[in-house]
UniProtKB/TrEMBL annotation:
<keyword id="KW-0547">Nucleotide-binding</keyword>
<dbReference type="GO" id="GO:0016887">
    <property type="term" value="F:ATP hydrolysis activity"/>
</dbReference>
<dbReference type="InterPro" id="IPR050763">
    <property type="entry name" value="ABC_transporter_ATP-binding"/>
</dbReference>
<protein>
    <submittedName>
        <fullName>ABC transporter ATP-binding protein</fullName>
    </submittedName>
</protein>
<dbReference type="GO" id="GO:0005524">
    <property type="term" value="F:ATP binding"/>
</dbReference>
<dbReference type="InterPro" id="IPR027417">
    <property type="entry name" value="P-loop_NTPase"/>
</dbReference>
<dbReference type="InterPro" id="IPR003439">
    <property type="entry name" value="ABC_transporter-like_ATP-bd"/>
</dbReference>
<dbReference type="InterPro" id="IPR017871">
    <property type="entry name" value="ABC_transporter-like_CS"/>
</dbReference>
<keyword id="KW-0813">Transport</keyword>
<feature type="domain" description="ABC transporter">
    <location>
        <begin position="4"/>
        <end position="249"/>
    </location>
</feature>
<keyword id="KW-0472">Membrane</keyword>
<keyword id="KW-0067">ATP-binding</keyword>
<keyword id="KW-1003">Cell membrane</keyword>
<dbReference type="Pfam" id="PF00005">
    <property type="entry name" value="ABC_tran"/>
</dbReference>
<dbReference type="InterPro" id="IPR003593">
    <property type="entry name" value="AAA+_ATPase"/>
</dbReference>
């Protein structure tokens, strides 16, 4: 049983509702937007896996499907063997997701936020683990601060903490270091690497390819909603050529030969 298993996932977003003016002009309805086409891959337990792709490639859509926030138009997604639709509660419990957007409730303190999140998973008396997470993310002195009083980088640390309160075996980070300072990057990667060494599976999306090269043993590259490459980071760089993963990424994204090709 794998940590993450995706079988032929496709996603077509419904078109925007047709306006009254367009209806009166008898314009034909717009087709939906195909964000993912037959995406299949597996992430094994304990892997540090990179999901890469340019803006709009479909990374967040795929993560939303895994987290049960969006439903696939076709195909099957499983987390730790649990189907994300039919076994939603178990699959969601196995997963910690750090979202790309800073979403938070401004009325609570950091500790309250983490206690509430623990409550969603039926966890009471979770303060020992909450304190450990806060310490490891450099947030101990912010525990009683109100969320709205935190800087953007500090809020992002709380999002990471929130994803970890229920000790999920699989952790998904959607661009966790976008716009954050060197200090947080180092703190975050030290903690996430430690969790990975302890056996947690990590799926990371990032536009910082040097981070992916340093951290991820395997990567999948999405291009226009299709898998363009899927291999170990080292094998991919050796096969495609170039000085580093960024070079390989640029070559793959600019060469149509790779569209829909899997390793
Ligand atoms: N709710 C939605 N309705 C319609 N189209 C959407 C919706 N969400 C995303 N899309 C479209 O689906 C495609 C994939 O978007 P997605 O956010 O998954 O890409 P991404 O790889 O995460 O991009 P980024 O790197 O910019 O975060 C894009 O063309 C986007 O405009």
């Amino acid at each position: 049983m794998s940590a993450i298993n995706l079988e032929n996932i496709s996603k077509i977003y419904a078109p925007a509702p047709i306006s009254l003016g367009a209806r009166l002009r008898r314009q034909p309805p717009q087709p939906g937007h195909q964000a993912l086409s037959n995406v299949s891959f597996t992430v094994e337990h304990g892997e540090f896996f990179g999901l890469l792709g340019p803006n709009g490639a479909g990374k967040t859509t795929l993560i939303s499907i895994l987290a049960g926030l969006a439903s696939a138009s076709s195909g099957r997604a499983r987390v730790c063997g649990y189907d994300v639709q039919t076994d939603f509660r178990q699959s969601r419990r196995a997963l910690g997701v750090v979202p790309q957007e800073l979403v938070y409730d401004p009325f609570f303190t950091v500790r309250e936020t983490l206690r509430i999140q623990s409550g969603y998973f039926g966890l009471r008396n979770n303060d020992d683990w909450i304190d450990e997470i806060l310490f490891n993310l450099g947030l101990s002195d912010k525990a009683e601060s109100n969320m709205r009083a935190l800087s953007g980088g500090m809020k992002r640390r709380v999002l990471v903490a929130q994803a970890l309160v229920h000790r999920p075996p699989v952790i998904i980070l959607d661009e966790p270091t976008a716009g954050v300072d060197v200090d947080l990057r180092r703190t975050l990667w030290a903690f996430i690497s430690r969790l990975n060494k302890e056996g947690h599976t990590i799926l990371l999306t990032t536009h910082y390819l040097e981070e992916a090269e340093a951290l991820c043993r395997r990567v999948a590259m999405l291009k226009q909603g299709r898998i363009a490459a899927l291999d170990t980071t080292q094998a991919l760089m050796a096969r495609v050529g170039g000085a580093d993963l960024e070079d390989a990424f640029v070559r793959i994204m600019h060469d149509d030969e790779f569209l829909g090709v899997t390793a």
